[in-house]
Amino acid sequence: MGKESLDAKEAVEMMKHVASVIIESEPILTDADRNLGDGDHGLGMERGMNAVINKLAESEAHEVSDVFKMTGMAMMSSMGGASGALFGTLFRNGGKALEGEEKFDSKGLHSFLESANDGVKSRGGAVPGDKTMIDALEPASIRAGEVSELPLCESIKIVALSANEGKNNSKEMVATMGRAKTLGEKSVGHPDAGACSVAIIIQAMSDFINT
Amino acid sequence: MGKESLDAKEAVEMMKHVASVIIESEPILTDADRNLGDGDHGLGMERGMNAVINKLAESEAHEVSDVFKMTGMAMMSSMGGASGALFGTLFRNGGKALEGEEKFDSKGLHSFLESANDGVKSRGGAVPGDKTMIDALEPASIRAGEVSELPLCESIKIVALSANEGKNNSKEMVATMGRAKTLGEKSVGHPDAGACSVAIIIQAMSDFINT
Amino acid sequence: MKKLINDPLKVADELLDGLVEAYDGDCKKVGVRSIVKTEIPSNKVSLLIGGGAGHEPIYHGLVGTNLADGAACGDIFAAPPPDIVLEATEAVNTGNGVLYLYGNYAGDVMNFDIGAELSSDDGIDVKTVLITDDVCSAPHESKDNRRGIAGLVIIVKIAGAASQTADNLEELERIAKMAVLHTRSVGVSMSPGSIPATGKPTFDIDEELIGLGMGIHGEPGVSEIPMTTADDLTPKMLDLIFEDFENDSDIECLSEGDEILLLVNSLGATTMMECLICLRRAKMYLKDKGVVVYDTIVGPFVTCQEMSGISFSITKLNDELKQYWDLPCESVCYTKL
Amino acid sequence: MKKLINDPLKVADELLDGLVEAYDGDCKKVGVRSIVKTEIPSNKVSLLIGGGAGHEPIYHGLVGTNLADGAACGDIFAAPPPDIVLEATEAVNTGNGVLYLYGNYAGDVMNFDIGAELSSDDGIDVKTVLITDDVCSAPHESKDNRRGIAGLVIIVKIAGAASQTADNLEELERIAKMAVLHTRSVGVSMSPGSIPATGKPTFDIDEELIGLGMGIHGEPGVSEIPMTTADDLTPKMLDLIFEDFENDSDIECLSEGDEILLLVNSLGATTMMECLICLRRAKMYLKDKGVVVYDTIVGPFVTCQEMSGISFSITKLNDELKQYWDLPCESVCYTKL
Ligand SMILES: Nc1ncnc2c1ncn2[C@@H]1O[C@H](COP(=O)(O)OP(=O)(O)O)[C@@H](O)[C@H]1O
Ligand SMILES: Nc1ncnc2c1ncn2[C@@H]1O[C@H](COP(=O)(O)OP(=O)(O)O)[C@@H](O)[C@H]1O
Ligand SMILES: [Mg+2]
Ligand SMILES: [Mg+2]
Ligand SMILES: [Mg+2]
Ligand SMILES: [Mg+2]
């Protein structure tokens, strides 16, 4: 049965599930970055998610915000690269927006994504259409605002679809940021690697919440 | 019709023919040296024979001995490597043995090969059975002594067969000299590259003399 | 691809250990993945470099005598995380400020910036100069967006020398910026490197093509051109550098009598033989232009695993840069008497 | 194999021209294919090295300050012809004699010997020391038959330093022989290089095998072993060097407290990353043995086109060798502060 909200312990389980899905998806992410970047995104995300699993096993999270902040810290410290800073920022900023909250629910999902999106935008300077992870994150964040009255197990499904759609839309974009920018028109036709990661993460959250 | 002897001018033509045959044989010689050495024997011989062609075109040979000495000098100066020194020595020493002779005949062939063989042996220190060019050169030299009463066009055919047989016998030998020596038993089964060159050279001489 | 490694996921850590060993005590490992000189004079403005691993002997190999004081090292092709930047900053800091000098890649900029924020929380004065020598990675109007490639060897050498005598952080920053402004590079690649952990090539390229202007991870350049000879390619590449000096109003163009440094870099698989053959043609080109080569540097300094390719870097010298260039230096990557 | 060359038959000549250019006036080309220092002190015993091309940056890249005075250069993998040896000998000779120092290969020995005969016809005093550091190429009882491999970098460095102060040719010969006796190497290869003119690989090897003890042209070694990790292979290779010192009664074995030089050489395609990872393991091994590494040298010095592989060289130091090692030197191949 789908959940309407998660407490800190459940959020930990969710993030462990997310981590394992990303680790499994390494080859997909590697290929995505090979097409447009330097081919290391999958390994970086795998490294980050292994660190997340260790971190969540070692230290106890008292609040849901801690779970996401710890996730962000673990990714930022272990990954390096553009995505280490950006996914670290995503989870740290997202987590900060939940400080004081006991549960992670649909409203929390919206605050999380909005703050995560702002953080990534100000850290990386990208805007929607630049063919980055923002192109999955921003539509997800907006959609989360629109569906925040639904129970979490429903809203997260819809938000995951948006992220995935955003990732698919990134295929048609011309890269202007990161390593892919010099590809110009040649970058069209492939989805952005970071956007793939965002879509997979939110889908994995949704799958966890709905089982 | 086969010739009974060559004058200096004919000897020049013969060496040009030998040179062109060796140049054509570059791939065979390269492969032979790849099996047992560093794979550059064909190129070295090609370089040497191109230098021979140039040298013989530039300078005039008054005696048959000059033709062979010039051949040796050109090879020694242009090739480098083991075979530059050795084939240079072969032709220089062989040529020295003909000093004062007006014609190159069956007796001359014997003197040439005997002196060439001595020179190569003392320069390189190899003895028959070491799987080197000596294993083609020495039997040819001995056979030339045995058939020195025949007309050149006949003796050279027989001598060429000996050189070829010597080259074939080198297949079964274990290398103890040059780059191939560390191969030990593994060198068995392939003919020596330098022996291939010797056999091709004498066969080309025979073909020229017999047309 | 047979590689002499152990666990493919640990190559960055193990190569750093090896690098520290190569210094025979002149450098030490600090924290998770930084390398720092054993002795840093207490009155010195510090120079910190860094970047992803896999490009050996840079970046971390440029720590040394009259070179960088330390390097923050990332994993293969990945910028170092902020924690590592912080630990390296703390280790090189003498209280006189730290200049960050590294290649302009999004990942490096973000991570070093966060590292700088953390460092200034600790009261350490940090300034940043980005290396942007790759003329093919952005037009001259937006040259601050360019990538850093092999020219970094010259730039770090000059900044390292300047850091020995700079009175303050601003002075070192000024000289590092001058070295960047005066240094331009153009690279090509013929075949990709691979990532040790996946064994996958970082890009694909046709057997008959050369990537003109490609970056040191195989980032696309200006165009793909048919494979050609050293003598045909070299002037094409140098033309791009000369044109760039010409078009950029921030610096005078390269003209007769100018003194330059010339660096020919191999990306790894390209042999020293090929570098020397290209160098031969480059010197003809430069003689034609009347430009005087003050010093020539040639070798595999900035590599990308078994990637093949070559780059030319030219630094237009002035008296100040020349004086810093002249100082001897020693490191695993580059040593000069 | 995309190579940045011009006429494949002219690579040896063109790379030499490039090498001369890399010296920016410190060296010049002499005759057909020799490179010689521009200034050689008139009272000096001269040091001449040489060998085939295709192994850049050696041999000709070891001409330089406190290194060799000149080099006689052959074509790809071919010893220089006697005429070239002669022209180089004449160019370096100051009247105080010339030491020939080169790798022990049949072709080199014959051509240098003829060159020496021609030189002594010209009244030049010549002595020869052969470099024979490759322990896998012959048993220690016949160590004079061994090949010269990467240890030559150390040996030439020491002889170059000694040639600055040697009173006569015999003295330089003595020190060069001492450097050879004290230096031992073991190499491996995983994949072949190719000859530029034919594009053909110089040997074949299974995808799963390593050639243990292979020479720098791919000459067979002691055995083919399964491909393995850096940490497994490194001790196996070092064992062979230690055993050789132990078995050879002409030199004391390597024991606790001994000071050594350690050279890790890449044959070309093996990355600096791999060299550093192997170096890391080598240092562990040496620490275990209690042997003290006085100086570590790592990089692609003795290569064979795109051949992959690595070698370790160890020089057992004594006071005399150490003093010569300490002298700074500069060249395209190796520079030390
Ligand atoms: N400035 C930026 N803003 C937002 N996202 C970015 C930016 N630069 C890169 N990215 C994201 O990072 C991803 C690449 O991550 P990764 O491969 O791990 O880093 P790197 O480029 O350092 O190799 C891209 O696919 C893109 O989504
Ligand atoms: N010491 C020697 N005596 C006689 N012949 C030799 C000797 N060393 C090598 N050779 C001959 O030289 C040939 C190799 O020549 P080449 O490949 O040109 O020289 P390198 O070994 O310098 O590459 C061998 O096949 C062998 O016939
Ligand atoms: Mg990437
Ligand atoms: Mg050969
Ligand atoms: Mg990366
Ligand atoms: Mg050879």
What is the strand and helix layout of this fold?
The complex is a heterotetramer, with 2 copies of chain A (211 residues) and 2 copies of chain C (337 residues).
Chain A: H1 8-24, H2 26-36, H3 41-58, H4 64-79, H5 81-96, H6 106-124, H7 134-146, H8 152-170, H9 193-209
Chain C: H1 11-22, E1 27-30, E2 34-37, E3 46-53, E4 70-76, H2 82-92, E5 98-103, H3 106-121, E6 126-131, H4 152-165, H5 169-181, E7 183-191, E8 209-212, E9 223-226, H6 230-247, E10 259-266, H7 272-289, E11 292-299, E12 308-316, H8 319-326
Parallel strand pairs in C: 3-4, 3-5, 5-6, 10-11
Antiparallel strand pairs in C: 1-2, 2-4, 7-8, 7-12, 8-9, 10-12
Instruction: Spell out the CATH superfamily of chain A.
Output: DhaL domain
Largest sheet of chain A: none
Q: Fraction of residues of chain C in helices?
A: 25-40%
How many distinct domains of chain C?
2
Strand order of the largest sheet of chain C: 1-2-4-3-5-6
What number of structural domains do the residues of chain A give?
Answer: 1
Morphology call of chain C: globular
Rounded Rg of chain A: 16 Å
Q: Could you tell me the radius of gyration of chain C in angstroms?
A: 19 Å
Instruction: Classify the secondary structure makeup of chain A into a structural class.
Output: mainly alpha
